[in-house]
Amino acid sequence: MKVMENLLSERIKSTPPSFVRSILKTAADPNVISFAGGLPNPVSFPQEELLVSMDRITKTYKDKVFQYSITAGIPELRQFIADRYNKKFNLHLDIDNILITTGSQQALDLIGKTVLDENDGVLLEKPSYLGAIQVFSQYMPEFHTVDLTSDGLNIEQFKETLNNNDIKLIYAIPEFQNPTGLTYSAENREEIFKIIKDKNLVLVEDDPYGELRFKGKHLPYIGAGRYENSIVLGSFSKVVTPGMRTGFIICQNKELLKKISVSKEASDLHTNVFSQYLIWDYLMHNDFEKHIAKITELYSAQAQTMLNSMDKYFPKNVKYTRPDGGMFLWVTLPEGVSALELFPKALEKKVAFVPGDPFYINKKNVNTMRLNYTNADCETIEEGIKRLGELLSGI
Amino acid sequence: MKVMENLLSERIKSTPPSFVRSILKTAADPNVISFAGGLPNPVSFPQEELLVSMDRITKTYKDKVFQYSITAGIPELRQFIADRYNKKFNLHLDIDNILITTGSQQALDLIGKTVLDENDGVLLEKPSYLGAIQVFSQYMPEFHTVDLTSDGLNIEQFKETLNNNDIKLIYAIPEFQNPTGLTYSAENREEIFKIIKDKNLVLVEDDPYGELRFKGKHLPYIGAGRYENSIVLGSFSKVVTPGMRTGFIICQNKELLKKISVSKEASDLHTNVFSQYLIWDYLMHNDFEKHIAKITELYSAQAQTMLNSMDKYFPKNVKYTRPDGGMFLWVTLPEGVSALELFPKALEKKVAFVPGDPFYINKKNVNTMRLNYTNADCETIEEGIKRLGELLSGI
Hints:
Two copies of one chain form a homodimer.
Chain A: H1 2-5, H2 10-13, H3 19-26, E1 33-34, H4 47-61, H5 75-89, E2 98-101, H6 103-115, E3 121-126, H7 130-137, E4 142-149, E5 152-153, H8 155-164, E6 167-172, H9 186-196, E7 202-206, E8 230-235, E9 247-251, H10 254-268, H11 273-285, H12 288-313, E10 319-320, E11 328-332, H13 339-348, E12 351-352, E13 354-355, E14 368-372, H14 378-393
């Protein structure tokens, strides 16, 4: 073991352990009601339709769906994405603005690889997506965090952080944020844009949940369509299937995207081409809007059940967010209570959540936790929240 | 553009441009006979059988093949790999020695990420696989190369390089090497093992072509089964389908593999789970050995045709290797002739190859080139070699 240490990179030594994955293992007991993961509800996977598409693409494109392919991703799927975002967000994208990635997680890795040197400044929300913290950590940047409020970023803090530090990359999840479920208001986005518009940095808006809005109306991106080094990340994981690991990068600056593409080539040559054809064929031959509506209806009911149950079973000194979409909500316990310490007690009651710790940079025993409502039916959600309520009433 | 430069990492600036991919674009003209790529022959893809497996896994495992999964890869496929290598190479692997990767290329990236700090010593064959040079370059190591001979590594140089430098990682392709098609002899492997056996380094034996032997018998690995930090890389790209991007890492040291697994999680969470079930199901329900025999028979004939044509059409001062398997052979032109300069002239004659340059560290206008014989039928191969012969006769 001592010998092995000498063979490890500083990078891997500074990568936080895979917190959620180890929690997921603990919560794998089928008797545990788990709000810990971030899994889409499997009833939302269009299995029958995908099987039809598999048959069709294999017969139509034959060996093309099994052979090596180009790094950028198949033009058909990139065109679909460009068209969809152009229409929905009034953008002017073509296929050279799009790079298909092996899930959205890979997009984060490629951006880190292409942009970050050691000690470069990265600005994150506080709290932020733990997978982003993990992957960016591997490039050993200097993290700066800005409080996330119910309206979006704390603007004063944001300005201060940008003024006092050399920030190269901003990473934000403006829509149904992971972990909090919060959404930046239109005004907040506009203020952020005004502050950064003359600055030379890369703005990443991670948007895996944007299609999952069940309340209110879609909001424009902060940077897309108007900020040069704007990047938007999207994914088919939450609206078609996560198992196929198909996400995408939308990048305004084609030269920057070419560089990211070199990192992509070095990382895995290209994304699974069968999956790309499959998802594209599925999108071409089915009513995607109707499918999305079915998912949001499902998640809306599940989120509402969770909130109603929390209103009923949680003590009044426990606060929580009320998301307009996405997959998560965020619970704040009374000050001084450690969610991490509650975790084993919750497991005894056969219910699991993610303690807030891994969503912060170097913070321990915080009084927050993330709950997922997409991967359990309403009855199970109520039962799980009831168990959690019993536990919280004792703190 | 100048502004963008400030936003790029040193890493991406030191990554060589994607040479082969740009060549592949040039050679995409369907009238060009291309020996440039590294594509398996599409007639080798078991398309019918894969379609049957798709139907079966979707009906049997339902949403499991579409959902998020564990980082290590599905246990069923890892068990298959462990069993196969145990039997074939007399090893003692279990599933915790195996990590499924998004193609073999990702394995290289994960190893680089987990092991390499800036300026760490990496020992490569001269010449070596360009994709390895590209991906390791991103971790900005110090490269040291050792001449590859028809027997394997030049042992004197190898010793000297190890003695005079701090080498953390050795990367070798002992079987049907890319680009040369050469194979290390059993004696060479043994000598290498003796030299490194008490040294503290990571030995990577990249073995994507090992199953494709059409002459001679299988040889034991250098390190697998007896060297602590031994890593063997394998892939289903050449024997089932490359489009599915399914490769694997076999690592003796489970603690080291756990660290690589953390890098894997940060990179893309896990490999496409549908592809993993698909390949596993295909392997379970078909005669894999028979399938491999069909491929090697095909490639043997194609390699033989290429060699016969070269004997017939190439001038005598042009030398080439005679591989016992794999996908490539290596041509050495008279000294002072630049293969790179020949390339546009070859394109005029509608034939393409890869000039040797990208297989070396910082070498330009070398007198070597790589030819691939797997992705064209025998008639096309003869015609292409004839055209190339005409060109070479004029140098």
